[in-house]
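Example 3.2
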Amino acid sequence: MSNYTKVQHPVITILLASALTATFWFIGLFYIPDSQAQSQLERTPLTSEILQQRVHNPILREGNPTVDLREMTIDLRPDNATFRDEFYQTLRKEIQKTGAKPFGLDLSNSLIQGDFIGSDLGLRTTIYPQAISPTFTPSEQEQLQQLREVCLKSLSIGFPSAKDCRSLLRQEANISTVESVFRSALIMQQTRFNGAVQFANTFFLQPVDASGAVFNQSVNFTEARFGSTVSFANATFRKDIQLTNSIFFNKVDLKQAQFQEAVYFQDSSFSLSANFKDAIFRSLVRFNRARFGGNADFSQVRFLGQVQFTAADFNEFLLLTEAAFEQAVTFREARFYQPVTLRGASILNIADFSDAIFALNAYLNVSGLAFNSNSAKILGNPGEIGKMLYVSSLIGNQNVLRNLMQNFRSLQQISDINQLEYTKQQLRFIELSRRLFGTNINKASTEKLKSLGLTQLQIEGIINHRNKEQFRNQSELLELPEIDFETYIKIRDQIIVDEPLLIGEWILTAWSWLFIAVLLLLSGYGTQVWLVFGVGAIAIAYFGLLYWLIDKYRRLRPVPIVPTCYETSWILTSYFVFTFIGLLAIFRNAEQPWLTLGCLVLIILPIPLILLARLYQIGRFHNKMDVSYFTEDGTLRQLRLLIGRLPVIPRNPSFRERYMPILWDKRWNWLNYYDFSLNNLMRLGFNDIRLRDECLPGIISSLAWFQWSLGVLYITLLLWTLSRTIPGLNLLIYLK
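Structure, written as C-alpha cells:
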C-alpha cells in the first residue's frame, strides 16, 4: 500500500465527521422539539414601564378588553418585592373596577417566577342578592341570578354546601360571604408557573383557560367557583393540586392533563360534563363525595396511583373506556344513575364497589375488560355486584366472564358466580337465536332485507357488494356508503354472515336453544330456587284441580257423584291461593315473568286438557268405581310421619302410631287431591293414596304418568338449582 493511500483514509474520515457534525448542528438550530422550544422561547422581562403601558393599552380579545402580558417573564419572587407589590396593585386597580366592563388577563406563554397569588387580583365583594346590583354590570347580575337558580335546583344533591351557594342564597350581608370575584376571562395558555399558584375562595364569572400550562409547584383552587367554562387541557401539574369543595357550573376540560402528585377533588361539584380523557394521574386521586351532574369522561386515563370515588354521585354516564387502574380504585357508597362504561379498561389491583347504589337503568359495562383474578380483585356486595355486570356479547368476552367468575369464586360469593353464569347463558341463547332465526346478509332476498327496515338504496348497496364479494363479518356493512352507523346499530342483532346450517346442525342448534330457554325461564339457569318453587306450586295446584274434576264431576250413572258446594268452594279457593303463591314467586324472581308463565303453560296445559276432553268424550264411569278412582294405601306411613307429611289423622285415638289419609267421605277430603298431586310430582315413594288398578280408564293413568314424567324433570331441576344456591350444597360451583 502506497503512502498516498495511507494518508487518504484519515482525511476522508475527518471530512465525513465534520459534515455529519454540521448537519446535526443545523437540525438542532432549526428543528427544536416543541418542549424544548417552549423552554427556549424568548420572553420579555416585565418591568414597571411595560406593565403600565399594557394596562393602559388593553387589547380586545373576543370583544372584551384584556391586559396583554403574553410571552413575558414575570418575577414575583420575594427578593423582587417592590415590583411584586406594584404588579398586584396595578392589575387590581383595573381588574377590580366596579360597574364598568371588567378587564381580562392574558398570561399566555409567560414565565411566572415566584408564587402567584391570583386571588388577590379579584374583586373583593359580597354576592348576596341585595349586594349584586351596585357592584356588577347588568350582564353579570343576570349571570349571578342564573347561578343562584342552579343552586336552588341543586338543593337535593348538595351544591349549597359550598360557600358560593350559601352566599347566593343568603338574603343579608355577612363578613364571611366576602368573595374574590374574577369578573373577566383569565387566560394562561402555555404559561409556566415556577412558584405556587393560589386561587382559593375565588369566583370566576368568565372562562378560565390554562390549556398547556405548566405548574411546577402546588396549585390551590380550594372552594373556587367557576361560572363559565374551564380548560386545563394538556396542562402539567408537577406538585399537588387542591380543588376541594369547588364548583364547576359549566363544562370542564382536563383532557391529556398530567398530574405528577396528589390531586384533591373532594366535595367538588360538576354541574355539566367533565372531560378527563387521556389524562395521566401518577399519584393519589381523590374524588370523594364529588358530584357529577353531566357526563364524567375518564376514557383512556391512566391511574398510576390510588383512586378514590367514595360516596361520589354520577348523575349521568361515567366513561372509563380503556382506562388503566394500576393501583386500587374505590367506589364505595358511590351512586350511579346511568351506566358505567368499563369497556376495554384494565384493572390491575382492587376495584371496590361495596355498598355502591345503582339506579334501575345503571350497570357496569365490562365488555373487553382486562382483568386477571390472580392478581386483581373486584369487590362488591354479595348477591348484588354480579347483577350489575353487563357484557354486550359472548364473542370476545369468554375470558372476561371466566376471570370474573374466578374472582367471585375466590371470594366465595356464590350468588354472583351464578349470576355471571346466567349472563353467560343468556348471551349464548342470543347467539343461538341469531343463528337459527337471523337474516343471512349474504343470502337474504330483497324482501327479507326490506323487512329489516332497510331502504331501497341500502338494499342495492348490499346486493352490489355481495355480488362482488361476500361479507366476512357484520362490521363490513359500515364500509358501505349507504349504511350509516345508526342503521347498523338497528340491524346488527338481526343479521348473520355464517354459512347456512345443515339439517342435522339446525336440529342440534334448535335443541340447545330450547334447552337453554327452558332453564333460563324456569330456574334462571339454576340461580333462582324460589322461582323453581313457584313453578312447582302452580303445577301441583293445577294437577290437584284436574284430579278433583276427574273424580268428582262424573256422569250421573250408575251412581251420581257430585261434590258439595262446601267442597267445591274449598277446592277452588285453595287452588287460587296456591296459584297466587306460585305467581308471586315467579314475578318476584323471574327476569321475564310473562315468558316464564308462557313456558310453564306450554308444558303443563295442552296434554292434560286433551286427555281430560277425551275422557269426557268417551265416558269415564265404571260400575265398580262408584265412590272414587282413588284408594287408600298404607305404604311407608311411618316414613311419611317422620317428615311431617299432611294431611293425616289418627285412625284410632288409642293407637297414635297408626295414621291414615283423610277419608274420602270426610269434611277435608279435598286435601287428598293436592296430596296425590304433590306425591305424584315429587315421586318420593311414600304415597298413602294411589289409583285403583282394576278396570282403570287408561286416560287417567296416562295423566298420572305424564305428571310423573314432569316430576322427574322437576326434581332434577330442583336438585340442580339447590346444588348451586344453597351453601354447603353448591359443589357444582367449585368443581368448575
